[in-house]
Amino acid sequence: MCFYACTALSDVTIGNSVSVIEKDAFRNDYSLREISFEGTVNEWGLVEKKVDWKTGSYVSKIVCSDGNVAV
C-alpha cells in the first residue's frame, strides 16, 4: 500500500520508468482525482496495474504526455 486512504492527496505524478502499480496503491484515496503519467498513452498501457490499485478513489483520468486515458 503506497498511499492507502490518504485523504490529502489530490494529484500525483508517476514517472515513465514505473512498470508496476501495486495492489491498493491508491485505494480509498478519496481526494485523488487525476494522475499525471510522464510517459505516453501507449506506455501507460504497458504498466501492470495490480488488482484494486485505485479502488475507492475518484481517479477519472490519467494525463499522459500525448493525451489522456479515462479510467
Describe the structure.
A four-stranded mixed β-sheet has the order 1-3-5-6, with no helix packed on it. The protein has a two-stranded parallel ribbon with strand order 2-4. By secondary structure, it is mainly beta. It has one helix at residues 41-46, and strands at residues 11-14, 20-21, 34-37, 48-49, 61-64, 67-70. It contains one helix and six strands. It is 8% helix and 28% strand. It is globular. The mean pLDDT is 89.
List the uncertain runs: none
- Percent helix, as a range, is under 10%
Query: Order of SSEs, N→C?
Result: EEEHEEE
Q: How many DSSP H or I helices?
A: 1
**How far apart, in Å, are the first and last alpha carbons?**
20 Å
| Shape designation | globular
- Average pLDDT reading: 89
Could you give a quick summary of the protein structure above?
By secondary structure, the chain is mostly beta strands. It is built from 1 helix and 6 strands, in the order βββαβββ.
